[in-house]
Design goal:
There is one protein chain. By secondary structure, this protein is α/β, with parallel strands linked by helices. It has a single domain, classed as Alpha-Beta Barrel (TIM Barrel). The chain has 10 helices and 9 strands. Helix 2 links the parallel strand 2 and strand 3. The longest helix has 21 residues. The radius of gyration is 18 Å and the shape is globular. The two termini are about 30 Å apart.
């Protein structure tokens, strides 16, 4: 199916590379994915700001290349002053979008200065006004630490009330979970765009490890099929591409306002999905 809506929000997520060689590889990746004209790229922020400098440097390099980029940001173990300085640095660099997350504390820190992402959103609004478009996280299958589905909606509503403009979901492979979550939000008066997060399937062990740690359910039939292909990379990639393409088609047919791909700093798996979805691809500049 071809995606033609002018309001479609396409975005790609990276993590900050650890070396100059990694950054050069990432340049190639973002050059290839930029051909699909995403609304923005995003760059993750490690637990407690553990990748603070790497995130900043990656964001600035991408911005210097003319890309619209949204740094992830969380309080973790940082002070308000440190976060304020980082926001100022991003604003001066022409960054206009932030992905605001609660984040995780690094190992060894037993408390956090702020407990909820809504507090970070509120801080950003207080510090920077309406300069930044703020994306927040949403969890259609419920965050592992949430006490209940109602509690999940309650915390999400607080982020919206604090000033969030849009949301990106944790990845999932169950369309009904996304649709039910969006319907519940609409009934609660939460009308912001909720963009589904999409994880390409490229590796059996890594997918299950990620999913088990973040509470994303991989349906049993998908697990069993992947297990059967674990020693046949070509078959696993083909099956994964079929599953995720169909997932995206169903989401778009259900009215999803866009797609946010967790690229894992790889171009081809995500580019393959974009092509299969009929997303327009533009030639790289000469």
């Amino acid at each position: 199916m071809a995606v033609t809506s002018s309001g479609f929000q396409l975005s790609f997520e990276f993590f900050p590379p650890k070396s100059e060689q990694g950054l050069e590889k990432l340049r190639s990746t973002w050059t290839q994915l930029d051909r699909f004209a995403p609304v923005f790229f995003s760059v993750t922020y490690g637990a407690g700001g553990s990748t603070r400098d790497g995130t900043l440097n990656t964001v600035l390099a991408m911005r210097a290349a003319g890309l619209d980029v949204a740094p992830h940001l969380s309080f973790g173990g940082d002070s308000r002053e440190q976060i304020g300085e980082l926001l100022d640095r991003y604003r001066q660099a022409g960054i206009g979008r932030i992905v605001a997350l609660r984040g995780d504390l690094p190992s060894g820190l037993g408390s956090r200065r702020l407990a909820y992402a809504s507090e970070l959103v509120e801080f950003i609004r207080g510090h920077s006004g309406d300069h930044f478009t703020i994306e927040v996280a949403a969890y259609p299958e419920v965050h592992p630490e949430s006490a209940s589905y109602a509690s999940e909606l309650h915390h999400f509503a607080h982020k919206v009330a604090a000033g969030a403009n849009a949301a990106i979901t944790q990845y999932f492979y169950n369309v009904d979970a996304y649709c039910h979550f969006v319907e519940a939000c609409r009934r609660a008066g939460l009308d912001l765009p909720i963009v589904p997060g999409i994880m390409p399937i490229t590796n059996y062990e890594r997918l299950l490890r990620f999913s088990d740690s973040c509470g994303a359910e991989v349906p049993r039939w998908i697990r069993k099929k992947l297990e059967g292909h674990r020693d046949d990379e070509a078959a696993l990639l083909a099956f994964g591409a079929d599953v995720v393409t169909r997932l995206c088609e169903q989401l778009l047919a259900a009215g999803a306002p866009g797609l946010h791909f967790y690229s894992l700093n790889q171009a081809e798996p995500t580019a393959t999905l974009c092509r299969r979805l009929g997303l327009a691809e533009h030639a790289a500049p000469a």
